[in-house]
Amino acid sequence: MNRTVAGVFWIVLYLFVVLAPLFLMMIRPTPPERSFWVEVSLGLGFVGLVQIAVQFALIARFPEFTAPYGIDLILRYHKQIAVVAIVLLVAHPIILVIDQPSRIGMLNPLGGSWATRTGNWALYTLLLLAVLSLFRKQIKLNYELWRVTHALLGVAAVVLAHVHVNLAGRYTETPWKEVVHLTVTLFLLFLFGYLRLVKPAMQRRHRYRVAEVRRERGSTWSLALESVGHEGLRFSPGQFAWIKLGGSPYKMEEHPFSFSSNANDHGRIEFGIKELGDFTSRIGDLPVDTVAYVDGPHGNFSIDVDPAAGYVFLAGGVGITPFMSMLRTMAERRDKRPVLLLYGDKAWDAIAFREEVEALRDRLALDVVFVLEEVHDGWEGETGFIDADMIRRHLPEEGIERLYFVCGPEPLLVAAEAAILETGVPLEHIRSERFDLV
C-alpha cells in the first residue's frame, strides 16, 4: 500500500508540474488577446518545454522516486515521453507558420530576432539529440560518446529554451513569472549536476576493488567486488546497479548489471555479465584490484519487494543473474517457500550457473526445468521455448498463490508474459525485468 500511495503521489506531482505553465499563462497580467491557434501553439510549447526539463528528474535515479515503479519503467517512460515532448515543441512553430504563412522566416536558425534564433537552436538541438538516441545502434555511435553528447545537448537545449522564453517575454514579462521560470530551470539543471557531479563525489568515498573475475558457462563471467574502507552495500536480491570500472567516478562509461550474489553479504557483491558487446567482451581481461564505483541498488524486481507464498521464475540466457541472487539469498536464509525455475538457453553447455542451480535443489524447495533450443543426443528434457503448456506441465497443483518473475531478452519477455497470462494468471501477479536501459 505504501508503494501505491507513493506512486500516486509522484504521478499527481508530475502532472501538476507539467501542466503548471498552462495555469501560469492564465494568471494576469497576460499579453493582448491573439488568435486561438497562436495561444494553442504557445501552450504546446510551454508543456513540451517542461516535459523536456522534467527529464532531468527522471534520470537522476532518486530511489524515493523510482521505487514505486522500478527504474527500468522510469527509463522506458523517459524515452517515450521525450519523443512526445519534442513533437509538441516542433508543433509550436509549425502552428504559428500555418496560422500566418508570412512567419516562415521564423524557422531560419540564422534569421529573425535573437528570440526566434535561440528558440530555433533549442529545437534543432533537441531534434539532433532525438536522432542520435533513436538511431544510435544503427549508426554505430559509441555508447560513451553518445552519453556525453546526450548530456551536453540536453543541457544546451534547456538553457537555449530558457533564453528564448525570456527574450520572447509573452508570458514571463512580469518579475514573479520570470523568477518562477528561472527557478524551475535552475532546479532541474541542479538535478543534472547532482547525477554527474555530486553522486560521483559520494562514490569516491565508497570505492570497491575487483576481487575476482570468474568464468561461467555460456560466455558469462562473475564479477566480484569488495568494499574498500566501508561496510559495503545493502541490496535486495534481484536488484541491479550501475558500475564504473577503473579511472575516476566522473567518467561517463558506466553499465547496469544485476546482482547475482547473496544479498546478506554486504562487503562482497557479485554480478553476472555476459559477453554481448565491446565492454562486456573485455570483462574477462579485467585485472584484480581494479578500482570500481557502484551506483545502486536500483529496481523493484525482488522477492523482498514482492513477498509471496511461492514463486515461478522464468529465465532466458543471462536473465538467470537476478534469480541467482534470489536463490542464493533464500538458501542463506533457509527459506523453504516453493520455487519453480524454468530456465531456457541455447544449448546445454551454455547454461550459466548450471551446477550451482542443481546443487541448490538440496537446500531449497526448488524445482528446476531446463529448456534447450538446440538439443544433444540423449536429451529428454524440454525443448524449444517456454509456453503456456510447459508452465502447466510443471506447475504443481497446490493451494498457494505464486508470483511470476520473468527476466531475459525482449523476445523471451514478450512470449513468456503472454504464456503466463494464457494460463490464467492475472497481470498483477507478473513481474518483469528488462535489460535495455540505455
Structural commentary:
- This protein has 438 residues and is an alpha/beta fold.
- The chain has 3 domains: 2-199, Four Helix Bundle (Hemerythrin (Met), subunit A), CATH 1.20.120; 208-298, Beta Barrel (Elongation Factor Tu (Ef-tu), domain 3), CATH 2.40.30.10; 310-433, 3-Layer(aba) Sandwich (Rossmann fold), CATH 3.40.50.80.
- Helices cover 45% and strands 17% of the residues.
- The chain has 11 helices and 12 strands.
- The strands form 2 sheets. Strands 4-3-6-1-2-5 form a 6-stranded antiparallel β-sheet.
- Helix 9 (354-360) links the parallel strand 8 and strand 9.
- Helix 2 (36-58) runs antiparallel to helix 4 (71-99), helix 2 runs parallel beside helix 7 and helix 5 runs antiparallel to helix 6.
- The chain is elongated, with a radius of gyration of 25 Å.
Strand portion: 15-25%
Our Rg estimate from Cα atoms comes to 25 Å
Mean pLDDT rating:
87
Portion in helices: 40-55%
CATH class designation of the largest domain = Mainly Alpha
| H-E order | HHHHHHHEEEEEEEHEHEEHEHE
- The low-pLDDT segments are none
CATH architecture of the largest domain: Up-down Bundle
Write down the overall geometry.
elongated
The side-by-side strand order for the widest beta sheet comes to 4-3-6-1-2-5
Q: Count the DSSP helices.
A: 11
Structural domain tally: 3
CATH topology of the largest domain: Four Helix Bundle (Hemerythrin (Met), subunit A)
The total count of strands amounts to 12
Q: Report the structural category.
A: alpha/beta
The span between the termini is 30 Å
**Largest beta sheet, briefly?**
6 strands, antiparallel
